[in-house]
Amino acid sequence: MKIGTLLRGALLGLALVGGTGLAASADQLANVKSAGKIVTATDMHYAPFDMVVDGTYQGMTKDLFDNVAKEIGVEPVYQDLPWTSQLPGLEVSKFDIVIAPVTITPERLERYTFTLPIADATVGIVKAAANKDINKPEDIAGKTVGVQQGTAQFKQLQEFGTKVGNVTIKEYGTTDEAYADLAAGRLDAVAGSAPNLAYLVKQRGDVFALPEVSTFGKPTYFAWVLRKGDDSASFAGAIKDAIVKMTKDGRVKAIQEKWLGKYTELPLEVPAK
User: Fold this and answer.
1) How far apart are CA 38 and CA 77, in angstroms?
2) Rounded Cα gap, residues 239 and 79, in angstroms
3) Are 221 and 121 contacting, i.e. CB atoms less than 8 angstroms apart?
4) 213: closest CA among 125, 153, 133?
5) Residue 139, CB half-sphere, CA atoms under 13 Å: how many?
6) What's the pTM value of the predicted model, to 2 decimals?
7) Is 68 exposed, middle or buried (0-12, 13-18, 19+ CB in 10 A)?
8) Would you tell me how many other CB atoms lie within 10 Å of the CB of residue 90?
9) Distance (Å, whole) CA 125 – CA 144
10) Which of 26, 67, 125, 230 is the most buried (most CB within 10 A)?
11) End-to-end CA distance of the chain
12) What is the pLDDT of residues 95-124, one digit of tens each?
């Protein structure tokens, strides 16, 4: 899909949230099948999950969701929106699902319905390749660390920064902006999910590096998000059935290896609170 067909930018995101919502239905699965499409929202600045290359949307999320939509028998409609507008837009029915990788947390489980995990989301840090001072997460004490605003990684960094002491946290609208400041020497490190950071280093190992020990906190997972309620139950069930089928026939493994360079076995149930 060409980037010209995508809704982009904060103003468009706000316009979407303020516009007319999707038709209400007592059964969301019946609704999307009747429409012949699943309207999604994501942030296409989150490699390797979502990115735009030469004007075309691609990434691990797209490969996975293309297959899920095919299993359900509908076409996916991909929209590029700022992360901060996605969950609010979902709540007022501006699209069917958020497919930006969202970290499963107890707080979010109270408010939303999550699909099965699609990837590991354990938080870690990346540094400049020339940095010799940061060799483990605790070494960010007294340093300035960037992170994407409004994410679970931001919250985990806050908690970890309080524990190690004297960490200055700088928030960014996208991870790309944080990486740019790290490369320019305006940050000592950037916090993010382990798969994203590993992909960054794989692509730009001359600029960025992972410390000898890079992750901290408890293991977490990424998933997609639906509205909470009885109307979404059948839709969530159909997505679960598709992911389970794709896991068993090897498609999930192949897609992970393509984008992450390795396969991580994921739970076939949504982690409990």
Assistant:
1) 6
2) 19
3) yes
4) 125
5) 19
6) 0.81
7) buried
8) 21
9) 12
10) 125
11) 37
12) 999 999 999 999 999 999 999 999 999 999
